[in-house]
Amino acid sequence: MAESASKHDVFQAIADPTRRRLLRLLGDQEMSVTIISGHFTMSRTAVSKHLRVLADAGLVKDQKVGRETRYRLDPEPLLELKKWLSNYERFWENKLSVLKRYVESDDPAVMESFLPLRTYKENEK
Amino acid sequence: MAESASKHDVFQAIADPTRRRLLRLLGDQEMSVTIISGHFTMSRTAVSKHLRVLADAGLVKDQKVGRETRYRLDPEPLLELKKWLSNYERFWENKLSVLKRYVESDDPAVMESFLPLRTYKENEK
DNA sequence: TTGACATGAAACCAAATGGTATCGTAATTA
DNA sequence: TAATTACGATACCATTTGGTTTCATGTCAA
């Protein structure tokens, strides 16, 4: 799988659904490899490799505790993703396309996050 | 390459650096395949396949004009990415990690986009 | 209408990816 | 001390991915 050769980037790391599940799982609490693997049907080794990819991208940190290795989320590299996305903010600011997709979203926070950045500037006045 | 079998998702589509370059390029204006390829060193066919992946993810739209095919950006699917990212907002709200990476960013809009969502709720009071 | 242009489709290839099973080793516990 | 647990390392495998070259087809222009 991902042979930690030369640093995976965050874009590649989150491309895999299993790794996105891992990030979500570790968002709740720090967990050992065995416990983590218990949440997946694939082998422990496979999960471990995915964790390695995430670690390469800096999205998780590991800590040895006795014979187990605890992994925890480090969301910091996601800021790069957020930065990249910000280049496209201008395309959906004040656009109906924002409503088009999430008008019936069950998560109110989602709509809030779509409010245009311009709001901040208005507040600063 | 990407054999358009069963719909590529946006996470996979943006994982490749070439495809991110394509999105950036098409953000400025609609362009034909040949013109697009002129911006890359790889073959036209290779570029065309990347465009196919992006089209599968809904990130670009194509339109036949005579003998050429014009591609243009459709940023709408990026909202899914934005939605996914919003699940991690809570981790860097009011955190120094926000400053840690971009304190010397040359783009002021970047820092603005990092202001916490909570600001909105306070405004509602 | 004849040739040049724009593009997609195929066939092919090397390398990366996602997965498995097996083994070695350090830490824990009986 | 001996068995068990937790994990990484390795070797291996099938499929996907990113790229190439070649060919077929539709469109435009002389």
UniProtKB/TrEMBL annotation, chains A, B:
InterPro entries membership: ArsR-like_HTH (IPR011991), HTH_ArsR_DNA-bd_dom (IPR001845), HTH_MetalResp_TranReg (IPR051081), WH-like_DNA-bd_sf (IPR036388), WH_DNA-bd_sf (IPR036390)
Keyword Ribonucleoprotein included in the entry's annotation: no
Keyword Transcription regulation found: yes
Transmembrane segments: none
SMART domains: HTH_ARSR
CDD domains: HTH_ARSR
GO molecular function: DNA binding; DNA-binding transcription factor activity
Gene3D superfamilies in alphabetical order: Winged helix-like DNA-binding domain superfamily/Winged helix DNA-binding domain
Record-annotated HTH arsR-type domain positions: 1-93
PROSITE patterns: HTH_ARSR_2 (PS50987)
Superkingdom field: Bacteria
Key words, A-Z: DNA-binding, Transcription, Transcription regulation
Descriptive protein name: Transcriptional regulator
Higher taxonomy: Bacteria, Bacillati, Bacillota, Bacilli, Bacillales
